[in-house]
Specification:
- This protein is of the alpha+beta class.
- It is built from 7 helices and 8 strands.
- The strands form 3 sheets. Strands 2-1-6 form a 3-stranded antiparallel β-sheet. Strands 3-4-5 form a 3-stranded antiparallel β-sheet, with no helix packed on it.
- The longest helix has 37 residues.
Length: 325
């Protein structure tokens, strides 16, 4: 389901089964229950890369997904929305494909990748030096013969392929003119020294922008010896809110579509429905809770009781209270 964070949407076909006990060989009938009711066998994901088109009704409602055969690339299968669950990051304009959470990170990621490639090429060139080949002028003229063009092409290949590795080495023709000067020559210029730009700082800045786009830049705090605890806590609160929002989206989709359909298939009442919920995303600072409770008790705003004690024990992951013998 969380692949919707990458693609913006995730489409799952609901596969049902008859609950006839754990000893059934047929997976469509096997269950740890043997009450004969209909249950979920799986919510099979239908790969985002297999999407061909979406189908809509006259009012713009989503009616289903048309999928291309992922194995052959041919043939299309219609999956109606009544038999599926569509999870998406946003329902703006009823767009079935939502919006990828990584979309805002694409631009800094693209620049970072290009700068890293250029940086690697620069390091390699600094180690090898800048190759320069000298050739007679007639080899560069437009009237160069086919043989001269072949030689010039071979020299270009040598110049562009010079690298520092276990295969380094050059075989070059030793030809002189009438005055004893070489017709062909190859030299390596020394490195020009340090560059004007600090690529490490640029890449670090782009890493921060990528992390900021998904509210997770708190993981970078302290790496450059800056950032306070209060700032980190605030950023983690924002990230926890975003995770909570994703969990709520998943739970709401299941509660609105999957559970009512399952109960209807079993001819069960749907006026009072069970629901799927999720646990607490962020952790609670116990020292702050203790200070808060002690102040309220101190001024008489609340009185300790078994319900409060049980809740505080759960927050601190403490064992349940045992009656005195």
């Amino acid at each position: 389901i969380l692949s919707m964070c990458v693609y913006g949407w995730s489409f799952h076909e609901i596969v049902y089964k008859r609950r006839l006990g754990p000893d059934q060989k047929d997976a469509s009938k096997r269950s740890r229950f043997n009450d004969g009711k209909i249950g979920w066998r799986k919510w099979a994901i239908r790969g985002q890369e297999t999407l061909y088109l979406w189908t809509f009704d006259d009012d713009g409602g989503i009616q289903g997904m048309q999928q291309v055969d992922p194995y052959t690339g041919h043939g299309r299968v219609d999956i109606p929305i009544e038999k599926a669950l569509l999870f998406r990051t946003t329902a703006a304009k009823n767009n079935p494909e939502g919006r990828s959470l990584l979309r805002n990170a694409y631009r800094p990621w693209w620049f970072k990748r290009r700068i890293e490639e250029i940086e690697a090429i620069g390091i390699e060139r600094d180690l090898a030096g800048l190759p320069i080949a000298f050739v007679p002028p007639e080899y560069l003229a437009g009237s160069a013969t086919p043989a001269q063009q072949v030689v010039l092409s071979a020299i270009k290949e040598i110049v562009t392929s010079i690298k520092r590795n276990e295969n380094e080495g050059i075989i070059f023709p030793q030809v002189f003119d009438e005055g004893g000067k070489p017709l062909f020559d190859l030299k390596l210029l020394n490195s020009g020294g340090s560059r004007q730009f600090d690529t490490d700082k640029v890449i670090t800045r782009l890493d921060q922008r990528i992390a900021m786009s998904i509210l997770s830049d708190f993981i970078l705090l302290g790496q450059d010896r800056v950032g306070s605890f209060a700032l980190g806590a605030t950023k983690m609160d924002l990230w926890s809110m975003s995770v909570d929002s994703i969990a709520k989206t998943i739970a709401d989709t299941v509660n609105q579509h999957a559970i009512p359909r399952l109960l209807k298939l079993n001819a069960m009442r749907t006026d009072t429905l069970p629901y799927l919920t999720y646990g607490q995303v962020s952790s609670v600072e116990l020292t702050e809770v203790a200070d808060y409770v002690s102040k309220l008790v101190g001024v008489g705003a609340i009185m300790p009781d078994p319900a409060l004690e049980e809740h505080l024990r759960q927050l601190g992951d403490l064992p349940d209270s045992q009656p005195l013998v």
